[in-house]
Every structure is written in C-alpha cells, then in structure tokens.
Amino acid sequence: MVIICLAFVCVSSFLPDHHGRFSAPVTVLLAILMGFLVLVTVLGNALVILAFVVDKSLRTQGNFFFLNLALADILVGGFCIPLYIPYILTNEWKFGKGLCKLWLVVDYLVCTASGFNIVLISFDRFVSVTRAVSYRVQKGMTKTTVAKMATVWIAAFLLYGPAIISWEYIAQQSIIPENKCYAEFHYNWYFLMIASTIEFFTPFISVTYFNLSIYFNIRKRTPVRSESSAARKDCELFCCRKKREHIIVFTKRKNKKKVSSFTPSKPAVGSLGIHNLQTHSIEFNISEDFPPWQVDIQTKSPWDGVYKALENISGTIQKAEVANTAASRFRLSRDKKIAKSLAIVVCIFAVCWAPYTLLMIIRAGCHGRCIHHDLYEVSFWLLWLNSAINPVLYPLCHISFRKAFLKLLCPAKAKIHPNVFIGHCTLVLK
C-alpha cells in the first residue's frame, strides 16, 4: 500500500507542470484505473498467501504451486506496476538509472515466473489425473516440490536477468536515453524471438498439451464405465427373470383336508398377479352343493436354490460395484472440472500473453515503426492484468481455498452458518 501511495504522490507532483502524453483529466482517470488494478492484484494475491499462513490444511503439494504463483503476481502488483504508473503518465523516468535496472530485472523476472508457474500448475493437474495413485502418495512439501518451485524462479531469471544487467557492458554502449527506462535488447529481434519462444510459445504449447491429455484421458475412461454399467444391468435382469410354477391347493376350511391341486394356466396366474402369489389366499364357492373352499396359492421353482445363490453373489458384487461406481463418478466429475479449468487457463493465458509477445517481436523487427506505441502499451497492461486474474482463476476455483478465504473474510458468519454462508461468500468473492 505504501508503494501505491508513492505512485499517486509522484503522479500528483508531476501534474502542475504536466508535459506528459495525456491531458490532465485523462491522466487522473488513468491513474485511478491503474491504481485500482494495483489494489486488486495486491489484495487478491495477499489473500492467497495469508490463507496459506493461517490454514495448515492448504499446505499440500499442488497448492504450494499456487503459493509460488501468488508470490510472483504480488510483486507485479506491489512493485512493477506502481513504479511504471508515473513513467507512462509523464513519459519520463524520474527514479534514476540504478532503480531502472532493478525495476527491469524484477519486472521481467516476475512476469516470466508467473507464466512458468502456470505451466507448473497445469503439469501438476495433469499428473494428478493421469497418475492418480502415485500422486496421492506424495503429500505436503517435499524436496521435489521445492526443487520445482526454485527451478521456476531460476529459469525466469536466467532468461532475461543477465541480459538486462550486462548487455550495455558487452556492447560497450547504451542505446537508452537519459530519461527513459527499457531494456537494451528492446529492438534486438533475434534475442526477443528466442526469449519469447521460451517465455510464451513453449509454455502455451505445454499447457495446451496437458489440457488435451486430460480431456482424452477422461474420454477414454467414459466408455469403460458405460460397459460396466451395461453388464451390471444384464446381470440384474437375469437374476430377476424367474419362471415359477404356481400350484393352487384346495382345502376345506374345517378339517384342512386337501381336495385337489393343479397348475394354473398362464392367464390365470397373470390375472392373480405375481406380486401377491407368495402369501395370498382367496375364498370362493364352487357350487351351491359344496361348502366354501379356501384356496392356498404356493409358489415353487426348480431353480430356487440356484437363484438364491446367484442373489447372494449378485448382492455382494453389486455392493462392490456401487462403491466402485461412486468412486468412479467422483473421480470423473473431479477430472472434468480440472479439464474445464485448464481449458479456461489456456484461453486466458493466450489472451493475456499472445498480444504482447507477438507485438514485441514485430516491433523489434521494424524498430518500432510499424506498431503504434499505444497499441503496444495496451498489450503490456494486458500482460500485467493476468496477475490480477490469477488469484480468481486458480485458488478461488478450489473449494479448499474458498473455505480458507471464508474463514479469513467472514469468520463470525462462517461459524454460525457454515454451510449456507459458504455459497453466498463464494458469490461475493467471485
């Protein structure tokens, strides 16, 4: 928040003798919008970090990659954007060459680390779906998790950091004017093409591959589940289709003497109803000369022993199948949600990164003459906007993080109405 206030103080001090690219009202409006972006980026990512500190249940292997992403994005909103706001509004860098170098190193570092963290998160989701058994064995912070998180930062620094620091010393000259701040390789097409391939094209292809792999994995699993359900239904139909012989026994009511017995025809059985044949008895008069008769209807089947054995086996198998089906449905539902979230990740990653990367390469090829500066600036801010979207796109889409945010933002209401309020609070957070 101190850096945000510093940015506004710098802007307001430049307004009286304003010689920037925009008029004073437009400058104030842009400063407010940019300040709002800083506020959203810092608060969103700070909430993710605070949730990790407060809630120990969040400290799982996959969630540590969300923490790594939040650390990169909070530096974008807390350091990179506030120092750039006075620069873009006044069109002059007022903080000296040393701070310019530091700002460039941190800006390129955290933006690249943010993109690499997205690839790491997508890869982690890919492993959790395709190698679920081995993935569940690994819990919490491990050496492998720390190594992956550190590799992201090291790779991000090595991509641009050494070039920013040493380019002018190797070239033995600087092409940057005194009141400007940008990298020495700003117009070097070859370097930017190689760097952008590593920074954007490779991550984009990787994230797309992980998403498609998860999708096809789910599609491959679905027919197997359908065949299993069909086999279970066939077994149920076989066990339930029982051809029984129904014997009607006539007995006198007084002495219970059996008079005769016969097997009724199919229409007679059908007219009585199969559901009532087991214990049903009726009374009727055969003629006026005979006393009332009681008819006991008994059900026999030569396959009763076989059916009972099959029912016992089928019942045991059915219970196991129900448990397996429930687990399968849960995993399938979870994997579909992961696939959908990864599809959104691919789209947003492309929308936020592709314009800046493509315009940067084209601009370097023609030395800034074929791309309008304002269009390039819009793509630059679109890249930073990704850091404000990430806290909503990643942690907030997971129920464990939503519960942690609920505890932080609405502790009193969460205790009184834990189940009802979580939905309301989720809507508020979204």
TrEMBL record:
GO BP terms, alphabetized: adenylate cyclase-inhibiting G protein-coupled acetylcholine receptor signaling pathway; G protein-coupled receptor signaling pathway, coupled to cyclic nucleotide second messenger
InterPro entries: GPCR_Rhodpsn, GPCR_Rhodpsn_7TM, Histamine_H3_rcpt
Membrane topology: Multi-pass membrane protein
Chief place where the protein resides: membrane
Cellular-component GO terms for this entry: dendrite; plasma membrane; synapse
PANTHER family: 5-HYDROXYTRYPTAMINE RECEPTOR, G-PROTEIN COUPLED RECEPTORS FAMILY 1 PROFILE DOMAIN-CONTAINING PROTEIN
The protein's name: Histamine H3 receptor
Annotated ranges, domain G-protein coupled receptors family 1 profile: 44-394
Organism superkingdom: Eukaryota
A Pfam short name: 7tm_1
Family the entry assigns: Belongs to the G-protein coupled receptor 1 family.
Keywords (A to Z) from UniProt: Cell membrane, Disulfide bond, G-protein coupled receptor, Glycoprotein, Membrane, Phosphoprotein, Receptor, Transducer, Transmembrane, Transmembrane helix
Transmembrane segments: 26-53, 65-85, 105-124, 145-167, 187-212, 338-358, 378-397
Compartment(s) of residence: Cell membrane
Gene Ontology terms for molecular function: G protein-coupled acetylcholine receptor activity; G protein-coupled serotonin receptor activity; histamine receptor activity
